[in-house]
Amino acid sequence: MKEQNRSLHVQLHRKLLNQPKGIALLMVLWIIAILSVIVLEFSFGMRTETNMARHFKEDAYLYSLAEGSVHRAIVELIYKHHPALQQKRKAVLEEIPPGKEEWVTDGRSYPLSFSQGTCEVRVMGEDGKININFVSETLLRKIITHLGLEGEARDVVVASIMDWRDPDDFYRLNGAENDYYRSLPDPYDCKNGNLDSIEELLLIKGVTRELFYGRENKDEGQTERVGLKDLFSVYASGEQVDINSASSLVMRTVLGVPEEIIKQIIKAREEKRIENQQDLLRRVPELSPLIGEIGRHILYQSRSPYYTIESKATSLEGGLSRGLKAIVKVDGREKKGYKIVQWVDTVFPNPL
Predict the structure, then answer these.
(1) I need a surface site. Which of 104, 152, 166, 337 has the fewest CB within 10 A?
(2) Which domain-ending residue is among 205, 230, 255?
(3) In terms of residue numbers, what domain contains 198?
(4) Model pTM?
(5) Which of 319, 340, 317 lies closest to 329, judged by CA?
């Protein structure tokens, strides 16, 4: 049966070829098929280019939102550092209306709404962190332990950071100097000096991206990330943290304060900044048993004019996000009243 059908098909095809009308019909069919393929390919290409253009436009818009939000935060910081404006505002306003309060620099999120998207801005005083260039080996070991590293893995990180900072070529047990870094596939020299940016930690032996950016501890139901970047700075005053701007991550990981007491500290400083140790213990008496151990690491007045601003813009549909990070020095001696010392385009979440 199949052979008969094939034979009939061949005979029909030959008849068509022997007739001018048949040949014309076949040519028309082939032309239509070719044109259909061309049109489909053109339509697919145009749709792809349209989607790319729309994506580029939305990305540029979100970047503008994130950039504008960073500058909004800078304005708040300039206001915060301007005593005359502060006094004038206090004299005019007996009661500050909701939404007009002075921004707090402890890393809390401030939402900003726009016509085609939203933005979250976080401002963190660098004195709410520990200076990585001045942290002692003892405190560094304690912090790395709190981040989940123990034994040799912890010792490698601690010793390697200390070796990276010190000016000599003598390495500590489990540490690293030029002989290690020059043996890497992409070799480089050991710094033997202070870090210029916190991201420089990623160059140091033992510091993984997970340790630097942090990870979620799902076993304890913790949703926030905590890594070295959240705890250390190169712009902080030293080994003390400002209790009025330290994030809950810093108070928990660096100072070892329990979560319930952290909530009380945050509530107390929201009402009024904490002036000194006596004021802190009066308003948060539960901290008394710990103050002997952690008191030397607490600062009550920020000495650093540096702040980290993180801005994340999201489209209304929630499909796209755009992030920016800036480190700003607020100084009235600067021409604009501030100076941007670092500007980084970021991706959310941070890659591991």
Answers:
(1) 152
(2) 230
(3) 130-230
(4) 0.76
(5) 340
